[in-house]
Amino acid sequence: MSKKGVVLINLGTPDKPEKKEVKAYLSEFLMDKYVIDTPYFSRLLLVKGIILNTRPEKSARAYKKVWTDRGSPLLYHSEDLLGKVQNKIANPVELAMRYNTPAISTAIQNLIKKGCDKILFFPLYPQYAMSSTLTVQEKVEDEMKKIANNIPFEFVPPFYDDNDYINLLANTMRPYLEKVQYDYVLFSYHGLPVRQLQKVDPTKSHCYSVENCCSIKSPAHEFCYKHQSFTITEKVAEQLKLEAGKFGSSFQSRLGRTEWVKPFTDEQLIDLPNRGIKKLLVVTPSFVADCLETIEEIGMGGKSTFLENGGEIYDLVSCLNSDSRWADLISNWVK
Predict the structure, then answer these.
(1) Whole-number Å distance between alpha carbons of 332 and 305
(2) Which structural domains are found in the chain, ordered by start?
(3) Over the stretch 277-291, which tens digit does the pLDDT of each residue have?
(4) I need a labelling partner for 283 at 20 to 30 A (CA). Which of 104, 142, 166, 301 fits?
């Protein structure tokens, strides 16, 4: 009988919050042609010649702020999620990271040892992006050719508009909204360079070429991270019955001087108090597990920015992490 294996895939994390380990992790991550999508030699000069000589020490200090007795939050939340999913389904389930460990190749080998003759890969990214979904797909395809060329495999597609996912995200926010009457809800998504949206636009004439491109129906939306982010915001806001003008989307974590998707989260956190918004709830839907970008950048740095500019209450919704309802949803998707 056929036996299907499942691989849950997230981004990755350094082994330790130390300069050496962070530098190794950043080198693998930033040298990915889909993350910094410039020609190889210019990417090499930027990453090896500039970024890796300055950023690792700063990033290591940031990682130390979020590190726990169990290690990296991204890793242990993913491991806890893996355990819950495995307890709910009969199919063997493995965890892998696109960068660093546990490696995708190791997950594939483990499933083969368990007798699997087909594999379902699940990139844990709600929206499509070349720097997340596409790079995972290409890495998986390369590893499968080397390790298991005769085994069929497929991917779980982005789930940004799945009703069960939208309901779950809304339900994680409800306890916050029931306790505090917030002035505003900010949906903060990881940022992307505009050129990456244009590169994956199959029409080559819609993204940032048409006014209000995210609102006008197009085949480009199947691959448009910005449109899919806005879709999450709108659907969750509808579920929660948030009033128009009381919520919005923004984008965080930009790098370099190229044009990035706007509005920027850090600028919003300065501007919102000036607009009379004193009580703010923030949610980070592009992340399914809490990590450096949610805990340190938004939870610590973002809070300081908002309060220093006149805000009074700043609450951050935890990511789905290993919530049992999230494990149930994944289990239903991969059975």
Answers:
(1) 40
(2) 4-158+324-334 (3.40.50.1400), 163-316 (3.40.50.1400)
(3) 999 999 999 999 999
(4) 104
